[in-house]
Amino acid sequence: MSFSDDVKKELCRLTCRSENEMRAEMAGMVMGSYVLAGRRRDGDSRFSITTEFPFLAARMRSVSKALYGSALTVAIQIVRKQRVYVVSAESEAFTRRLMKDARIDKDGASADIPPYFLSKQHYFKAYLRGLFLTCGSVSDPQKKYQLELNGNSTPFFENVSRILKGYDISSKARFRGEQGVLDFRDSDSIADFLSLIGAAKAALEMTNVKIVKGMRNDVNRKVNCDVANLQKSAKAAGDQISAIRKIEERAGLGVLPKALREVAELRLEHPDASVQELGALMQPPLQKSTMYYRIRKIKKWAETL
């Protein structure tokens, strides 16, 4: 199963605290599956959606049973060698009840979230949970940070995005071809959204992945920095040794003043040491700035030969 499947499975295991919370979740599922898919209530058409997820089909069936006393029916079909689940209302009367609770009339739905589902925070959370279950997806955080709600109503997504800003959750409504998308790309906002709709385990997993990635990136940056510093030090040491060898071959190190000769001899004895380490080996020990000064003098001496 994908990470998105795991999230939806976690959400489908949640227990609603009240009938009104169930009603909000059901309304969100109907909104996500019916209106955002671009449908309208035409004639005597019955509510029906198709999903690949058996746990979502079971969730819709159990919630509808608890709310209305009769459940949505679930039929199994094979499409392109893959099992899918068709969830539908048995009658037009049942469809009307679903649409009424979702605040959807014969012309479709308003771009605004029904005020009733905004009246209490846990209603809004349940409504969002229903939306995500039927029209949402989230990428594996190991690969990339992205959560989407997909549908056919960008103005509706814009209103959802505006409300989510009050929860410090960043999202953007946009078009993808002719399709509307509510897009979440910020890892913190994705984790907060998942936590808001009740997927606490998934939110924690995403946070942990971000922490591990951050630590790994910090380690990589430090390693890269250390490697760069070692390469820089090795090149500098090579240049210093070349200058000292030039003096040794053309005039002998004895031509150098004692202070410079001691540095030159020490560098030849310890070709891999840093300038700071060389300074610590001097008797008495010298600061790095003093060592750099003497090395520069040695290199200038070599340039005259």
UniProtKB/TrEMBL annotation:
The keyword 4Fe-4S does not apply. InterPro entries: Homing_endonucl, Sporulation_regulator_WhiA, Sporulation_regulator_WhiA_C, WhiA_LAGLIDADG_dom. One of its GO terms (molecular function) is DNA binding. Residues 219-301 form the Sporulation regulator WhiA C-terminal domain. It comes from the Bacteria. Pfam families: HTH_WhiA, LAGLIDADG_WhiA. Residues 125-216 form the WhiA LAGLIDADG-like domain. Gene3D superfamilies: Homing endonucleases. GO terms for biological process: cell division; regulation of sporulation. Keywords: Cell cycle, Cell division, DNA-binding. Involved in cell division and chromosome segregation. Belongs to the WhiA family. This is Probable cell division protein WhiA. The gene is whiA.
